[in-house]
Specification:
single chain; mainly alpha; Four Helix Bundle (Hemerythrin (Met), subunit A); elongated
Amino acid sequence: MKRSLIVLVAVLLPAAIFAQAQGQGRDPMRNVNGMLKGFGLTDDQIAQVQTIEKSAREAVRADFTHIRLVQAQIAEALLPANPDAQAINALIEKKGQFRVEIDKALMTARIQLKGIMGNDNFAKYESALKERMRSRFEHRHPMGSLDDLNRPMMQGSPMQGEAPSEN
């Protein structure tokens, strides 16, 4: 699982960089291409790397879309008073197959990228991409700041340590 996450980061990071740089008016692949050129890769090899990354991103994106659809089907199947356990289990297995396809796509991309870059350069590439992703996303808190957790959700809710008021 940890390997899959590492590969996912390595493959999807250029897409995140590209998306973020679009609004900034600069070439998002410039730094990545510079790193690849620094490894001694030719322009054809760099184009191969970009093609592999794009293909893997598209495959993973499609599989994640399918997983979300299956999750919606599972939620719908759970709505009746007596849900069909066999049907739900079949959907869970289907969801698992999409996860397997994601792992296969990421592993295939990793093997291909290592073949082009070599083991040492791929390790450097992967490390640089992980560091870039970490630095870009370390200050983002998707659910607000951690201080917000101690605040009451509604005006009438009790504060931490207070007893609820009785109406």
